[in-house]
Amino acid sequence: MKDFETYIFDLDGTLLNSLNDLAMSTNYALRWAGMPERTVEEVRMFVGNGVKLLMERAIPGGLDNPRFDETYAKFREHYLKHNLDTTRPYEGIPEMLNILKQRGKRLAIVSNKFYEATQELAKHFFPETIEVAIGERENIRKKPAPDTVLEALRQLGADKEGAVYIGDSDVDIMTAKNSGLPCLSVLWGFRDKEFLIEHGANNLIEHPLDILNVKFNQ
């Protein structure tokens, strides 16, 4: 058995508990447009594949709603100003990342959150540990396509061998599979154990510090 050398993390629901800020910006935009607001639990199930899809699910009629674009733009405007209001790392995350960094591991974030917010949050919360942070960009396919994971590996100068992907959703499970990486599914995020197992999770992590002890076969 051998330690992993490269760790690629999802962001929302894996490193950061951002649910309340996402819900607040969603409802700000819906109120502005005169649309029904959503509960935090509804937003929890809407997130996981980028904020555009979050708003497709939150706005009545989704993309077919004639006010979709302006309501989505209002969400983005609000979220970029308020994504640090209540968002915080999950307990144990900073400690886990610091230990991995001290061990000489390569660390990256790959998220379907738009690029500016991904960069801002990574720099704010993890400036000394996360080397590469990649968000949604127009010229690269988002998760579950492997493109952003492969780009993170390229920027890190790391190979797929010895790399692991860590996330909290079915999208993350598919992303890891499409990237040819093992996947660790976390149980403190936006999806529960039953949901993750139903969607193919086979390596479940109960606490961030458990990540430190996971190894792979040589």
Overall description:
This is phosphoglycolate phosphatase. Belongs to the HAD-like hydrolase superfamily. CbbY/CbbZ/Gph/YieH family. The chain has 218 residues and is an alpha/beta fold. Helix content is 42%, strand content 17%. The protein has 2 domains: 2-17 and 88-216, HAD superfamily/HAD-like (Rossmann fold, 3-Layer(aba) Sandwich); 19-82, DNA polymerase, domain 1 (Orthogonal Bundle), CATH 1.10.150. It has helices spanning 19-32, 40-46, 51-58, 68-82, 93-102, 115-125, 147-156, 170-179, 193-198; strands at 2-3, 6-9, 16-17, 88-89, 106-114, 132-136, 163-167, 183-186, 204-205, 215-216. The mean pLDDT is 94.
Order of helices and strands: EEEHHHHEHEHEHEHEHEE
Find the CATH superfamily of the largest domain. HAD superfamily/HAD-like
The dominant shape is globular
User: How many separate domains make up the residues?
Assistant: 2
Our measurement of the CA-to-CA distance between the termini, rounded to an integer number of angstroms, reads: 6 Å
Spatial sequence of strands, sheet with the most strands: 6-5-2-7-8-9
Helix content: 40-55%
Provide the low-confidence segments as ranges.
Answer: none
Strand residue percentage: 15-25%
Q: How confident overall, as mean pLDDT?
A: 94
The number of helices is 9
CATH topology of the largest domain: Rossmann fold
Architecture (CATH level 2) name of the largest domain = 3-Layer(aba) Sandwich
Broad structural category? alpha/beta
How is the main sheet built?
6 strands, parallel
Instruction: Give the radius of gyration.
Output: 17 Å
Counting DSSP E segments of at least 2 residues, the number of strands comes to 10
For the record, the CATH class of the largest domain is Alpha Beta
Pathway: Organic acid metabolism; glycolate biosynthesis; glycolate from 2-phosphoglycolate: step 1/1
Enzyme class: hydrolase
GO molecular function: phosphoglycolate phosphatase activity
InterPro entries: HAD-like_hydrolase_sf, HAD-like_sf, HAD-SF_hydro_IA, HAD-SF_hydro_IIIA, HAD_2, HAD_sf, PGP-like_dom2
